[in-house]
Amino acid sequence: MQKSLQVTEPQSPGSDSDGIDQVHDQRIVIPTKFISIADYLEKREHSRFITSQIPTDLSIQVQEITFNVYKYPLVSKCGYIGRLELQPSISNYGYNLKLENFPGGSETFEIILKFCYGLPVDLNPNNIASLRCASEFLEMTEEFEDGNLITKTEAFLTFAVLCSWKDTITILKSCEALSPWAENLQIVRRCCDSLAWKASRENSSTGDAVHEEGWWFDDIAILRIDHFRRIITAIRAKGTTPEIIGKYIMHYAERWLPGMVMEIGARGYGHGENDLQFSICCQKEEGGIAHSNEQKAIIESLISMLPPQQEAVSCKFLLQMLKMAMLYSATPALISELEKRVGMMLEDASVNDLLIPSYKNFDKGKLTNSPEQCTMHDIDVVQRIVEYFLMHEQQQQQQQQKSGKCNISKLLDNYLAEIARDPNLSVTKFQVLAESLPENVRTCHDGLYRAIDTYLKTNRSLSEHDRRRLCKIMNSEKLSLDARIHAAQNDRLPLRTIIQVLLSEQLKMREEMLDKNGNTSEPEGNQSSTKMEIKTMKAELENMKTKMEALQSDYSELQQEYGKLSNKPKNASGWAYGWRKIRNSFQAKLDGNETGDGQQRPNPARKRSFKRRSSIS
């Protein structure tokens, strides 16, 4: 495409145009006087081709557009063009010039041409930065003409930056396409400092209303991440509170990271797992490599800008940033820093926040088939977060500050109950995470029992050995009455665990009765006998555990024998007789221990429950 800006010879008085233009095939003929060009082109700004009988002597290409102009008006104001050795044109008698990497492109150069030809130029916040950079590129200084374009644009820029918030935002936004000229000319720095000063003054006027986002939040959020970071740095240097800085960062993340406003944590299991993996892959690759790199740069910058104070941002926001950082493979050091910060605020988290999808191998765009790699959630991250929490709690205890371990035990038990529905979750990972808290932290094991029962429901084919491993985590003595009743009738639990629950229930009932009798009728001198009876009961419980292990061994041998006989003709009567014999033997031992030494016999209902369990086994 070509654009011509040329001067013509005067026309005869008898022409039809009477000294005015003639238009033929978009060619416009204008009067010959140079000063009249301004008057004429002001009315014909929409014209793209302006030609005349006098040929131009300079052809300038900017981007894809070529401008045919006269050399003298440009050389008189542009030092850059004046000192160039212009190459003669092959097609005509003029010269050719190509301006590479011209700030602002062809539109800005067209405005500069108008200025060089003496036409009125409209300076506004949208074009002032590009004109300032272009005038610097062309060296339009006062050395060539008083009131040259550098002086005019610099004056307007200073006036606009100092006076108007909206104009400063517009100018700074336009600087995104003017690197590195806008940086070198300090346009970006001046805009950022001006915005930071205005925002700090506005923050101080609002007082402690930190929960309310100011009107300036949306304006700053539209800026590019490097400009936003410079503004935040300047605002922080002026003494703005961490809560306000955190509000800025959270608002910006909501604007530029669409994944922040959607729940990435999954609730579906089974066949829906591959769907989740596929959706995560699509979310990462939706905008291509350039989009992923841009998102990664934003995430890493926001993480590095976070104030160190805990009250600056919420735990929910930190976990959302952690999910996004893992999705876009942010720097491991930044991910580790986020995990530590979440660990310090873990008591404020919820189960939904901790459901972090497993992003392993997602960056390769492949779905894995290994059960260990196909787990729906990343358990290792939560494990590290819990470890950071325990380290922080240890420091808090040394400083004699309040501890939040009780809340964490409930949170972790609920999290275990949620991930227990994942069929690919291994027993080892479940056990390690459940045992990560110290034993004395859990005052009640109801939540842990619910998580174990959920895991057993999901993995019904679990071996007896693995079921025992899981149930060893739980302390039946710390179960509530409702939980003990449920566990005593739970066919998914190992037989040994059920008996432990029954014995612990009986022991508790015995202790309650002894305490009650001791408080009402026994004198203080007889309390020693009560303690002896409790010790006796505990010894009997240990004896019962030993016998239970022997019975369990016999039961295992019978199972192996039954497996050998399964391929042979079955002797139903012999098998039934052998099983009844062992069951009656076990029941006799149980009844003998529970009724010995004048002790009370167990409840018939509880006895029927055990018989039913034995028959099922």
Automatic annotation (TrEMBL):
Renumbered residue ranges of the record's region Disordered: 1-22, 588-617
Pfam families to which the protein is assigned, alphabetical: NPH3 (PF03000)
Location of the NPH3 domain: 214-508
Comp. bias (Basic residues): 604-617
Coiled-coil segments: 534-568
Feature: compositional bias, Polar residues: 1-15
Pathway: Protein modification; protein ubiquitination
Family membership: Belongs to the NPH3 family.
Name of protein: NPH3 domain-containing protein
